[in-house]
Design brief:
Blueprint: H1 7-18, E1 26-33, H2 42-60, H3 62-65, E2 68-75, E3 87-90, E4 109-110, H4 111-117, E5 120-123, H5 130-137, E6 143-146, H6 162-178, E7 179-188, E8 191-198, E9 205-207, E10 217-219, E11 224-227, E12 242-249, E13 252-259, E14 262-266, H7 271-282, E15 289-295, H8 308-311, E16 316-321, E17 343-347, E18 357-365, E19 370-375, E20 378-379
Parallel strand pairs: 1-2, 1-5, 5-6, 6-10
Antiparallel strand pairs: 2-3, 3-4, 7-8, 7-18, 8-12, 9-11, 11-15, 12-13, 13-14, 15-16, 16-17, 18-19, 19-20
Helix pairs in contact: 1-2
């Protein structure tokens, strides 16, 4: 592995992120395992090896950490942000099971037991556990850091000045709290696309890499403020989100027509356009615009690595699909089945979408003023 965290650095990370108290007596590090449906990959295997190493290092430093450490395994859920399985396994030591089939059913523990026994959770997984852990944390006494897709080359992003990251994130959250709408101008090879997001009846969220409070869960590394656009759930008050949204997939820019906070049509043609058109028809809940996110880590020199966990924290991103874990209306019950549940971010930075330019983003505030948020891909704010 190109980077490695030793026990002392991991202890410092846990203390900085979670601010443990005497009541925090155990930490669980969660890993998901491949199965017959989702085969292993070298990156996934490396992540599990890293997770086992982190658990061993934290165990070595349990006295300094001040709590017990358990490595907890579970079968992967086949999709990002799908509900967690009802059973998990506390690893007793030795080599990790190669797949979920190697887990002994007689040694399973209830998911609720894991929640009850560990007030701090770190989910170092292939498939994001952010949504189910956010929902579960609302009614259970734990907090969680989710690290889907984390790789050793992302370790430097854990060493940033998160006090400054948090300051910037909270500045953006304050603007989102006061915003009633956002207007976007995108430049594409086909011309200029405009989109309006309705931000009424919503409050923003801050994810600045610090998770000290029980009942919360968030990404690590982090550095974003985000908000769910209004989805039109109030009787007689439809969502005003509408316009055109471009997203680049490989060499193809797919253009969606948006109305009522949903992608109602794909206007372009090509392999990616056809795939998206079919997905919208098969899974109507995927069409929901689930998040406007504003990342800040690009200003700290962080570059995209091809994993959404980190890449979305660099700048502007807009997500499709599930939103209930952020306070929205679309949840797992709106999809065709558990494995179809999805919340997926489209990240608007030059490295990820070179043919889609963020020309301008303006926030309209409740007092009638307008804030120039972004110009030519960069923040226009003075942080």
């Amino acid at each position: 592995m190109s980077e490695r965290l030793r026990g002392e650095e991991l202890v410092a990370l846990v203390k900085r992120v979670f601010e443990p108290t005497e009541e925090d007596r155990a930490l669980a590090l969660l890993l998901d395992l491949p199965d017959a449906q989702v085969a292993d990959t070298p990156t996934w295997a490396e992540r599990r090896t890293m997770g086992a190493d982190w658990a061993a290092e934290l165990k070595r430093c349990e006295a300094e950490l001040g709590m017990a450490v358990n490595l907890v395994l579970y079968p992967n859920v086949h999709t990002n942000n799908g509900d967690l399985p009802a059973k998990m396994w506390i690893h007793k030591g030795g080599p990790l099971p190669a797949t979920a089939a190697d887990l002994n059913p007689a040694e399973a523990v209830d998911l609720e037991t894991v929640f009850a026994d560990h007030r701090i959770l770190i989910a170092l997984t292939k498939f994001s556990a952010t949504a189910p852990l956010k929902v579960a944390a609302r009614t259970r006494p734990f907090r969680a850091a989710t690290m889907p897709g984390f790789r050793p080359d992302m370790i430097p992003s854990l060493r940033l000045d998160y006090q400054e990251v948090n300051r910037r994130v909270n500045l953006l959250k304050d603007l989102l709290d006061r915003a009633t709408g956002a207007d976007f101008r995108f430049g594409t090879p086909e011309g200029e696309d405009r989109l309006h997001l309705d931000l009424r009846h919503r409050t923003g969220h801050a994810s600045g890499g610090l998770i000290p409070a029980l009942g919360t869960a968030g990404n690590l590394p982090s550095g974003e403020a985000y908000i769910v656009p209004y989805e039109g759930e109030r009787e007689g008050d439809p969502s005003r989100t509408e316009g055109l949204l471009p997203v680049q997939f490989g060499a193809e820019v797919v253009r969606y027509r948006i109305a009522g906070n949903r992608a109602v049509e794909v206007l372009t043609n090509g392999p990616a356009s056809d795939r998206e058109r079919a997905l919208l028809a098969k899974e109507p809940a995927y069409a929901n615009l689930a998040e406007l996110g504003l990342g800040v880590l690009a200003a700290f020199g962080v570059k995209p690595v091809g994993e959404v966990l980190l890449d979305e924290k660099l700048g502007l991103h807009i997500a499709f699909g599930r939103s209930d874990h952020f306070g929205g209306q679309v949840g797992p019950q709106h999809f065709s089945g558990p494995e179809a549940v999805i919340h997926i971010d489209r990240v608007y930075v030059p490295e990820t979408q070179p043919d889609v330019k963020v020309l301008a983003v303006d926030l309209h505030l409740e007092d009638g003023t307008t804030v120039a948020l972004m110009r030519d891909g960069d923040y226009a704010l003075r942080f």
